[in-house]
Specification:
Elements (H helix, E strand, L loop, with lengths): L14 H33 L11 H29 L7 E8 L2 E6 L5 E5 L21 E4 L4 E7 L4 E5 L4 E5 L5 E5 L5 E7 L11 E7 L1 H6 L6
Parallel strand pairs: 1-5, 4-10
Antiparallel strand pairs: 1-2, 2-3, 5-8, 6-7, 6-9, 9-10
């Protein structure tokens, strides 16, 4: 999860998030190069005495500053489109979870476990245990296995919400009357936090998301839900 004074992105816990971090670094290097060249040109303009004022034609320069931006856009667009298509792939998920947004809590349904349904509310400050995170911990966590493709079916019962877990690279809108889906495969066990990322009313800041990811063997051994 994020920490105070953090500058970069959160550590990746899924292959998609690893790809997003790589693309972020790739685009950032291109931006740095463009900024350096622009600042260098401005510096030369301000410090160099222009002695030749008769140049009226510069075909080579015009070609360069037309072709070079096009090449840069292609270098940014190709990996971006690749990741976009990767996020939409659904390859035979091992488990399907349905998430329903409400004002202001989440309802989860394990469709592969006999319709197991429970609500997930933010823990009030008076109920926090030592080590719990204020405004982020919930009474019922979503327990999922790692190293297995998980499909999330996301919708809403009232207003627009957004189911987002940054460390997994997930952010999907919950829209009333529409069922959106996203998939992920977690690579490390742990507890990962997210929040609703769509302004949904007065208590928008108080509907966190908590995923508890455990090894697949432990998940298959028996009930891991403490409701």
């Amino acid at each position: 999860m994020a920490h105070a004074a953090q500058v970069g992105l959160q550590d990746a816990t899924s292959p998609i998030m690893e790809e997003l971090i790589t693309f972020h670094d790739h685009a950032l290097m291109i931006i740095f190069l463009i900024c350096f060249l622009v600042l260098y040109a401005l510096f030369l303009t301000l410090t160099t005495k222009l002695t030749n004022t008769n140049i009226s034609d510069a075909q080579e320069m015009e070609t360069v500053w037309t072709v070079l931006p096009a090449i840069i856009l292609v270098l940014i667009a190709l990996p971006s489109l690749r990741i976009l298509y990767m996020t939409d792939e659904v390859n035979d998920p091992s488990l399907t979870i349905k998430s329903i947004g409400h004002q202001w809590y989440w309802t989860y349904e394990y469709t592969d476990y006999g319709g197991l349904i429970f609500n997930s509310y933010m823990l009030p400050p008076l109920f926090l245990e030592p080590g719990d995170l204020r405004l982020l911990d919930v009474d019922n966590r979503v327990v999922l296995p790692i190293e297995a493709p998980i499909r999330m079916m996301i919708t809403s019962q009232d207003v627009l919400h957004s189911w987002a877990v940054p460390t997994l690279g997930l952010k999907t809108d919950a829209i009333p009357g529409r069922l959106n889906q996203t998939t992920f495969t977690a690579t490390r066990p742990g507890v990962y936090y997210g929040q609703c990322s769509e302004i949904c009313g007065a208590n928008h800041s108080f509907m966190p998301i908590v995923l508890e990811l455990i090894p697949l063997k432990i998940f298959e051994m028996g009930p891991v839900f403490t409701l």
